[in-house]
Specification:
- The protein has 191 residues and is mainly β.
- The chain is built from no helices and 27 strands.
- It has a nine-stranded parallel β-sheet with strand order 1-4-7-10-13-16-19-22-25, with no helix packed on it. Strands 2-5-8-11-14-17 form a six-stranded parallel β-sheet, with no helix packed on it. The protein has a six-stranded parallel β-sheet with strand order 12-15-18-21-24-27, with no helix packed on it.
- It is globular, with a radius of gyration of 16 Å.
- It starts with 6 loop residues before the first strand and ends in a 6-residue tail after the last strand.
């Protein structure tokens, strides 16, 4: 179990084996790197707070926990993570992995800015999008057997492709396709 502190300037997880986050909120003020041979297991009940970049080259297991972006954060590396709950705080920015797929198994709360970075967000659980910011996705997909509920009475913008293999609930909101979009929908989504 790690870490021994609750605030780090930079954190590098290196070497084979699992690194289990303790059940406490952990703040990373500098970059967070999960090396290729490392497996990082997040806390199931607390939050990993990112104030800088996340370089994920190894295995990340969300464990039902929460990632909060509280700075200018870019996710990069050889292995795009699937997170559980994702929070982007007001005035803060998250840039997704470049032209890659990031998974979200829980809820997405966006009060800041999300830059899609020409990538895909794949919802892999029973998820709800909420928050005060309008979100623009490049590609959005919903995994079979799972659901996504859009922001209540608000707009969701898709500039790339839409693939719904699960269920989408519009929540009295609007989905705007603002680009050249292919809609692949095995569940007859009502937008």
């Amino acid at each position: 179990v790690f870490p021994y502190l609750t605030t780090y300037n930079k954190l590098l997880l290196k070497g084979a084996g699992a690194k289990q986050m303790i059940d406490a909120n952990i703040t990373l003020n500098g970059s967070f790197t999960n090396d290729t041979t490392s497996t990082f297991i997040a806390s199931a009940v607390n939050t990993l707070i990112l104030n800088d970049n996340w370089i994920n080259n190894g295995t990340f297991i969300h464990n039902g926990g929460t990632i909060t972006c509280n700075g200018t954060t870019t996710i990069s590396g050889l292995s795009s993570p699937t997170v559980n709950n994702l929070i982007i705080n007001s005035g803060k920015t998250l840039t997704g992995p470049a032209s890659s797929t990031m998974g979200v198994a829980g809820n997405w709360l966006c009060n800041g800015t999300f830059n899609h970075n020409s990538g895909t967000v794949n919802f892999t659980g029973t998820s709800t999008i909420s928050g005060t910011s309008t979100i623009t996705f490049n590609n959005l997909s919903i995994t079979s057997g799972y659901s996504l509920t859009g922001r209540a009475n608000d707009i969701l913008i898709i500039i790339g492709n839409w693939m719904n293999n699960g269920a989408f609930y519009h929540n009295n909101g609007i989905v705007t396709f603002n680009g050249t979009t292919t809609v692949r929908d095995r569940k007859s989504t009502r937008l």
